[in-house]
Amino acid sequence: YLRLLEKLTMTESTWPNCDRYFKENYDKLITKFTRSETIENNYSQAMQDMFVLTMLDGKKNGIYVEVGADQPKIISNTYLLETEFDWSGVSFELDDNKVVYFNSNRRNKCICADATTYDYKSLFKERNYPKQIDYLQLDIDPAEGTLAALKALPLDDYRFSVITYETDVYSSGADIQDEEISILKDAGYQLVVKNIKNEGNPFEDWWIDPNVISEEKWRPYKTLVGGNSAEVILK
Q: 157: how many CB neighbours lie within 10 A of its CB?
């Protein structure tokens, strides 16, 4: 079923409703990062992969932690990073069928586990991950799970240069988002875009670590009210 679904949704006419980047939009990029001219199209639902690459100036051989993998390619925040920028990393997904399918299509493998209780610190140490990890995706359904996964991460021992955090505030309410913001602000992260929208619904917040991402880099994307991702990434 998942293979059939991917074949059906890989065509432009049936791709899930999302903001996508294509090479013809290159001149509209607010910031042209290293190797951005080589990207034919991206794969994220809301240009998260383009935001990560912009903040990190098209970094090659980065490291990501993807909490809530879902599918290996369609609306994936890490497919472009892995396939065109040679990133390594780890993904987490609770659905074992999705994990099997994901691992049959991706070089960087997915772990079938409960991301809300996982021992991330032991894995990071085992894999010798640097204390500054390039990208963290947090996206679990329901929103309570995403918050629990955030709390399970060893934030005192590891930092993340870019974080995309799915709040689903349009359906889950503001309380969970308020707690997310409190945790990450207390940890020293900078909220760049609050309430990125998909189909008009605010569903995600984008953060950076100001210790490694200069204000000159993130300031052009700072918004008081989130728009859709095309409005944030493109002129």
A: 11
